[in-house]
Amino acid sequence: MKQFISVKDVTDPNELALKAMEIKKDPYSNASLGEQKVLGLIFFNSSLRTRMSTTRAAYNLGMKVMTLNVSSDSWQLETEDGAVMNQGNAEHIKEAIPVMSSYCDVLGVRSFPSLIDKEKDYQETLINSFVHLSNCPIINLESATLHPLQSLADLMTIQEGKVKTNPKVVLTWAPHIKPLPQSVANSFAEWMNAAKIDLTITHPKGMELSPEFSGQARIITDQEAALVGADFVYVKNWSSFQDYGKVKKDPKWMMTREKLEITNDAKLMHCLPVRRNVVISDDAMDSNHSIINELAENRLYAAQAVLTEILKNL
Ligand code: CP
Fold first, then answer.
1. 236 C-alpha to center of ligand 1: Å?
2. In the 8-state DSSP scheme, what is residue 209?
3. DSSP string for residues in 4-55
4. pLDDT classification of 166: cutoffs 50, 70, 90
5. What tens digit of pLDDT does each residue of 282-305 get?
6. Packing angle, helices 183-194 and 148-161, rounded to 10
7. Does the bond joining 273 to the residue before it have cis omega, within 30 degrees of 0?
8. How far apart are CA 181 and CA 146, in angstroms?
9. Ligand 1 atom nearest to CA at 141
10. Nearest CA to 186 among 247, 251, 121, 128?
11. What pLDDT is recorded for position 60?
């Protein structure tokens, strides 16, 4: 694997998920693969799981890790081409990216969208700048429109937890208090479609994802109808793609224990962080349906599978 920006960098997503499951059984099986290699983690936005799971995955492979929080640890970076840099940003990414990549063997980057300029966000300007200006492979730690490390862990968790060959997976929109990126939902749909999983997406009218990502998934605007027979329910808020970045707060769409009763004893998933009793009720979060913490643990093995494939190619 030369880079990990989206599912398009993966030959077979199901095979990669199986590799992550194998790593989970024996996390130190390749403990020296990354010796004398350095992973740089560049965060333009906050993270708990991505930061810690990717760091631990690198340690399991013998790598060393350097982490930079751009907002607080470094010079403020300018990203605009042709900018007259007479304001706050002291360094341009045209210098910063080649320099950072010269210190590292692999770079991971997290950068959320503006949720203001749809065209610019969906062009993935920043992560593409890393791809073009760096001298080493790039891993997407969540970009403007995608979160592939999350999606690999999602797929792994479904493959691990399924009790029938073709489970029904439902991605349901849920309310939130502020506008969130579409990246987790886009990426989830893209990976499920690529892995040939039976995917239903349910959301209120006006909250459609870009068809580029929802693809051939079944789309139903009646949440309860969508949940009938579900084996896995993946809950996520996203802001509007059409009315770009606008928030919707409809509390009727919160996931509850009562709604899970409609399903085929579904396993409940969420990428975290989750706002309890806004996105998912306490009684659902704390029920036996939830595999949310198991999913978060699998982020480690997903990240390790990706790092393993990249290190093998260095
Ligand atoms: N799910 C996820 O990416 O979590 P963090 O934002 O904490 O990394």
1. 13
2. P
3. BSSGGG-S-HHHHHHHHHHHHH-TTTTTTTTTT-EEEEEESS--SHHHHHHH
4. very high
5. 999 999 999 999 999 999 999 999
6. 50
7. yes
8. 9
9. 3
10. 121
11. 98
138 phi and psi angles, rounded to 5 deg = -110, 135
Tens of pLDDT along 255-274?
999 999 999 999 999 999 99
Q: What are phi and psi of 253, to 5 degrees?
A: -90, 0
Residue 1, helix vs strand vs coil: coil
Token pair belonging to 163 = 């009790």
CA of 239 to the centre of ligand 1 (A): 17
Please count the CA atoms within 13 angstroms of the CA of 279 that sit on its side-chain side. 23
Q: Which tens digits make up the pLDDT trace of 74-101?
A: 999 999 999 999 999 999 999 999 999 9
In this prediction, residues 216-226 reach a mean pLDDT of 98
Q: 303 near 110, Cβ under 8 Å?
A: no
Radius of gyration of the chain (CA): 19
Q: Is 242 strand, coil or helix?
A: coil
Q: Is 143 in the pocket of ligand 1 (CB under 6 A)?
A: no
Residues 6+ apart with CB under 8 A from 194: 7, 10, 13
**Which of the four pLDDT bands, split at 50, 70 and 90, describes residue 71?**
confident
Cα-Cα end-to-end distance for the chain: 9
Residue 247 has pLDDT above 90, yes or no: yes
Give the pair of three-digit tokens for residue 11. Answer: 């030959």
Crossing angle of helices 49-60 and 292-312, rounded to 10° = 50
Residue 141: what residue type?
Answer: L
Residue 45 Cβ inside 6 Å of ligand 1? The answer reads no
Going from the Cα of 267 to the center of ligand 1, the distance in angstroms, rounded, reads 20
- pLDDT over 90 at 131, yes or no: yes
Distance (Å, rounded) from C-alpha 266 to C-alpha 162? 10
Where residue 106 falls among pLDDT bands split at 50, 70, 90?
Answer: very high
- With contact defined as beta carbons under 8 Å apart, do 284 and 290 qualify? yes
CA gap 222, 206 in Å, rounded: 13
* Residue among 25, 60, 18, 24 nearest 39 (CA): 60
